[in-house]
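Subject: Ligand-binding protein SH3 structure
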Amino acid sequence: MREAIALFLSNFMSAKGVTFVLAMLPISELRGAMIYAASPLGNLPLSEALPLSLVGNLIPILPILWTLEPLSRWCSRFPVGERFFTWVFERARSKSEKVKRYETFGLTLFVAIPLPVTGAWTGAAIAFVLGLKTRRAFPSIVAGVFIAGIIMSVVAYGTATLLRLIL
């Protein structure tokens, strides 16, 4: 799915633009953006890819933290909205048990781990479910995104370099 989105976007924008947009999307976030940027399709140097991915991944987080509660309340008045937010919050709750114990530090670690469904978007949903205030949640999410950026830089660009040497 991420690959299809990257290919579609690359028809309309530069590799920098694709990297930035992929970082903003919940399905790819920073992880997918860094993999794309390091791939032959993106072919961006790390010095360009990392800042684009970090900023792109963080841009939607404050609006998400600010609007999740009023949006969920309003949408839950409708059956489709109720089902959607129940699904989102169930996923967040299932991931939040580990985070709840350590709160902001746990949130940072959760966002930092480069695995599926552990990024900034899910981190924001978990912060909402746990009742963390934006002023505490946002710095934790930022720290987690930066750590994930370092990890993904090593993984994506290390793998790309290794493949170039082998092939």
